[in-house]
Amino acid sequence: MKQTEVFRWVTIVPVTVWLWLWVLLPTLMVLAVSFATREPDQLVDWTFSLDSYRRLLDPLYLQVFWDSFWLAGITAIICLLVGFPFAWWLAQLTPRWRALALFLIIIPFWTNSLIRTYAIKLILGKQGIINTVLTSVGLIEAPLDMLYTPGAVICGLVYILFPFMVLPLYSNLEKLDDSLIEAARDLGATRLQVLRKIIIPLTMPGIVAGTLIVFLPAMGMFYISDLLGGAKNLLLGNIIKNQFLSSMDWPFGSAISIAMILLMGLLMLAYFQASRRINRTGGIHDSTRSEERRVGKECRSRWS
């Protein structure tokens, strides 16, 4: 057996076993429990039932689904609007300053997100930094109620998930060929046209990936909703946690989890379809890239 084949088996087999034991098998267990019946004494009665999935259509839970979609969607949009210019600025830095900026982005991952959420709670509280500063300078007379609102939940979600938007965007923007932008500008394109017709199409995989990475976890971060939103702004993660730990309704909690997994699968399928379509029609192929590089060089030589 060749050395490369041995290395392949040594690396692939442990990863495959790990995924089977800790990803596939637990997911199959959750799927099986979602079709069971609630039993107060034994938690689960293995009588086949679709009641848990029918309960998902209850207006109360549909409202929670909508609220989770709304909060997660607003979070993804804010992260994208702020993260795209930030990632663009990051990609334009010199290698030395770029490494420092990336280091500063990654530093928050060294601290538990729960601790950082408590820090946000201290900042937004009635006796927090914002209210203290605004009161001391005379802009407000009474502290503002910023905690336990949808805005506080969105603020916490944006703070925690912002790096997950920046990193995929930076990865795509760093690979962007500057000669394409220079050629477009030399040929008379405005900045808005360059952004709309060159930068955004070429970085669309990073935009979609960053949006998914932010949107999906935002729907399940129950501790942020608990700490910053109180009991007023529930996410799907709060419902799942309550069903497993408080109500002891494991089949219904499993059904909600399976619904989230299906939603994740649909969004990932949409992402792969969009990436394939971009690469086939909307992207710029290698031959087109080389031609535009040549045109860009000619334009620069003429103007110089």
Task: Provide a descriptive summary of the structure in words.
The structure is a single chain. With 304 residues, the protein is mostly helical. It has helices at residues 3-34, 51-55, 59-92, 95-106, 113-124, 129-136, 150-174, 178-186, 191-218, 222-229, 236-245, 250-282, 286-303, and strands spanning 37-39, 43-45. The protein has a two-stranded antiparallel ribbon with strand order 1-2. A hairpin with a 3-residue loop joins strand 1 (37-39) and strand 2 (43-45). Helix 5 (113-124) crosses helix 7 (150-174), helix 5 runs parallel beside helix 10 (222-229) and helix 7 (150-174) packs across helix 9 (191-218). Residues 284-289 have low confidence and may be disordered.
**How far apart lie the N and C ends?**
60 Å
Query: Largest sheet, order of strands side by side?
Result: 1-2
Stretches with pLDDT under 50, minimum 5 residues:
284-289
Mean pLDDT: 84
Shape call: globular
Classify the helix fraction into a percent range: over 70%
Number of strands: 2
Can you summarize the main beta sheet? 2 strands, antiparallel
The helix-strand sequence is: HEEHHHHHHHHHHHH
The DSSP helix count reads 13
Strand content range: under 5%
Secondary structure category: mainly alpha
Rg over alpha carbons: 25 Å
Features:
304 residues, two-stranded antiparallel sheet, 2% strand, mainly alpha, single chain, 13 helices
Please give the structural blueprint:
Elements: H1 3-34, E1 37-39, E2 43-45, H2 51-55, H3 59-92, H4 95-106, H5 113-124, H6 129-136, H7 150-174, H8 178-186, H9 191-218, H10 222-229, H11 236-245, H12 250-282, H13 286-303
Antiparallel strand pairs: 1-2
Helix pairs in contact: 1-12, 3-7, 3-9, 5-7, 5-10, 7-9, 7-10, 8-9, 8-13, 9-12, 10-11, 11-12
